[in-house]
Design goal:
The structure is a single chain. The protein is an alpha+beta fold. The chain folds into two domains: 187 residues, Beta-Lactamase; 84 residues, HAMP domain in histidine kinase (Helicase, Ruva Protein, domain 3, Orthogonal Bundle). A four-stranded antiparallel β-sheet has the order 1-4-3-2. The relative contact order is 0.12.
Length: 290
């Protein structure tokens, strides 16, 4: 293999190592950014749901106190209001979800699934835990889940959830007396859970990575072509010509033309040195002939 091939091979090896390293780092950064972007969307959804809960408790329920004595109105419950508002959002974005699952809910539709129960139990086991972010795989792809605890923060909650006999009769008439009771103050009884798919941002990140790596390969290919051109023009061709002259002289062709190169680089220095050696050889040969 010639000098040109060895240099190109070394460059290809160095580029391959660099490409793998850059791709690995870039992939991690892009995936982290995709996850963070998804998490920010989840936090926006969570804050919106929290705002709906607060508005329902502070503004809507007081207006319905008298009517609640006659008929229990589910939309006066902050949890019901928040979840039903987001059901309307799901009509437009079905892959996004917001739930408030509970281990012992009044409405059985809010009963926690296995993985939701694990989240609630994590909050129950750690009173200092304010937020939990997890990623889970589903048949439809990976989802990022943001969860926050719902704790019994006041005696007002216990009016409906401590004992069946203490709960409003209208609520018992609607939901029965078997579920949603036995709650205690400061206990984590449920969680706000937002789930957003990671598939789209991850695919976007992967697409961006491919564009980035493709750009690197294209730039490297141009560099290789430029280096190859310069090697052939500046190094390989002059060395081949000098070698040809040297071969002719070694075969006794002392009248072979000199290789002339006016450049001030190493090849020019080599050509000048070779021509001096050749003239010295010619003079020595003449002296022997004389």
């Amino acid at each position: 293999m010639g000098i040109r091939g060895k240099i190109i091979l070394a460059m290809v090896a160095a580029f391959t190592v660099g490409l793998v390293s850059a791709g690995t780092v870039a992939y991690k950064i892009l995936i982290d950014n995709a996850r963070e972007e998804t998490l920010q969307k989840a936090r926006v959804m969570m804050e919106s749901a929290t705002a709906i809960r607060a508005y329902t408790a502070a503004e809507i329920r007081p207006l319905l106190e008298e009517q609640l004595k006659v008929q229990f109105l589910p939309y006066s419950v902050p949890s019901f209001a928040a979840q039903n508002n987001f059901k309307k959002v799901q009509r437009k974005i079905p892959e996004y979800s917001y739930r408030e699952p509970a281990l012992n809910p009044t409405n059985l539709n809010d009963r926690a699934t296995d993985w939701e129960a694990d989240i609630i139990n994590a909050f129950r086991n750690d009173a200092e835990l304010k937020e939990l972010v997890t990623a889970r795989d589903t048949p439809t792809g990976a989802f990022l889940t943001l969860a926050r605890p719902i704790r019994v923060s006041s005696q007002a909650c216990l009016e409906c959830h401590s004992k069946p006999e203490a709960a409003p009769a209208t609520m018992i008439a609607l939901y029965g007396s078997n579920n949603g009771f036995g709650w205690t103050l400061n206990e984590a009884v449920a969680a706000q859970v937002v789930s957003i798919p990671l598939t789209v941002p991850v695919e976007r990140a992967f697409h961006t990575l491919l564009i980035f790596l493709g750009a690197l390969v294209a730039i490297f290919a141009m560099i290789i072509l430029l280096v190859d051109f310069l090697l052939r023009r500046i190094v390989v061709r002059p060395v081949v010509e000098i070698a040809k002259v040297a071969s002719d002289v070694s075969m006794g062709q002392m009248d072979a033309p000199e290789y002339v190169r006016d450049s001030k680089d190493e090849i020019g220095s080599l050509a000048a040195s070779f021509n001096r050696m050749r003239r010295s050889l010619q003079n020595a040969m003449k002296m022997l002939e004389d």
